[in-house]
What we know:
Layout: E1 2-3, H1 10-13, E2 17-18, H2 23-33, E3 40-47, E4 51-58, H3 64-77, H4 85-96, E5 102-105, H5 108-116, E6 120-124, E7 130-133, H6 163-173, E8 179-186, E9 192-199, H7 205-216, H8 226-233, E10 245-247, H9 250-258, E11 262-266, E12 272-275, H10 293-322, H11 330-340, H12 347-367, H13 370-391, H14 396-409, H15 415-435, H16 437-453, E13 455-456, E14 459-460, H17 490-493, H18 509-515
Antiparallel strand pairs: 1-2, 3-4, 4-6, 5-7, 6-7, 8-9, 9-11, 10-12, 11-12, 13-14
Amino acid sequence: xxxxxxxxxxxxxxxxxxxxxxxxxxxxxxxxxxxxxxxxxxxxxxxxxxxxxxxxxxxxxxxxxxxxxxxxxxxxxxxxxxxxxxxxxxxxxxxxxxxxxxxxxxxxxxxxxxxxxxxxxxxxxxxxxxxxxxxxxxxxxxxxxxxxxxxxxxxxxxxxxxxxxxxxxxxxxxxxxxxxxxxxxxxxxxxxxxxxxxxxxxxxxxxxxxxxxxxxxxxxxxxxxxxxxxxxxxxxxxxxxxxxxxxxxxxxxxxxxxxxxxxxxxxxxxxxxxxxxxxxxxxxxxxxxxxxxxxxxxxxxxxxxxxxxxxxxxxxxxxxxxxxxxxxxxxxxxxxxxxxxxxxxxxxxxxxxxxxxxxxxxxxxxxxxxxxxxxxxxxxxxxxxxxxxxxxxxxxxxxxxxxxxxxxxxxxxxxxxxxxxxxxxxxxxxxxxxxxxxxxxxxxxxxxxxxxxxxxxxxxxxxxxxxxxxxxxxxxxxxxxxxxxxxxxxxxxxxxxxxxxxxxxxxxxxxxxxxx
Length: 516
């Protein structure tokens, strides 16, 4: 192996290893690096019956049929006259191998990285240049609808574990050269490919640069899922609220790119990350935009009401039954008192027992096989709830409260935000059991102060409510018609490229009737 003689960067060049002109030396070095790697194949052959060469690839990551037909056959059996050795690599690259992507390198590390990524390396005798060919062909999961983000109306395709499949799905949504896909690799051993996706001219350059810098600062041995990256780049890693959105849907990524956000896509995972985000974005589903605006608005309004139920209903019930019985109507109070008469525990303990049991059943249903998990969740909830009431451990009213709370939590479209609200439910129950409604009020104030202090890549987490931007309220609590949402979010894109829909796009019903 030849050491680097470059004087531009001595610290890096001293660790570079270049290919030797002797094929035996190169082969011995590669075999030493891939020692005990049974899936790495070294295929010796002769080019045109004269030049010795080896083919190096990882079995299972390449398309063997393409290697046989597009590389080995034309190199071994074509009756071409051999060229001068210094021109042989270029001649093979440009005129012999029928492969779409091909590159040359003299760096042994580049050769090894290419082979481990599924590419095939051709190393020839009496030359210090290797040819790297892209003939990847491993097995992968088909494009399917994401089970965690299913829709009634909308696209049925979702990302899979192949980064190139995912970028192609995104390209199908946005057919514009403004869609930029920058690639880098993170992980000393995993060498995971990461793609930064954004729309040039729409996403702020400062935001894109911030994403680049945060990703380049990550030093880790292995990246297996987007959650590894999320913890490194999020603004508030100790907050229960997510400041980075994850999704499996290409249409969700495309819609967010159109608003000036940046997406981060990783190889080997179907989940893409989106930054920046706001709290309100976690309550907005992609299906809100596929139905008529008034339907989406009503559903979104119900979703906001379910958020309040999810977070406060058990705490308010505990506070009222423990400290503020005078606020409950007399007939309802008598009914609750009768159901609680055989229960030996205070309301706070009763609520904690039922909430923990419900969360355990939900977790068990997720971990078990789908058919078994659904049966365990439904039957378990019915049996345990009924048995607990008959045994006098909990009251029927508490079972109803916990059931309503659990159903409301399923309406939160963002899974990460839903988990945050489920966790925060327990501190609110404790505060309600200790201080009553005053404790709930204190919890609300602390939560609002915390939310106001959060930022996601420089954007306020409660924007456009705090700071207030009335022009952006068209897509928060309700969904305005498309012809009303003619501007992109100014807090994300700024004043540049803010127009999405020209004015005057509102349909005229009278004009349509006249034509009919």
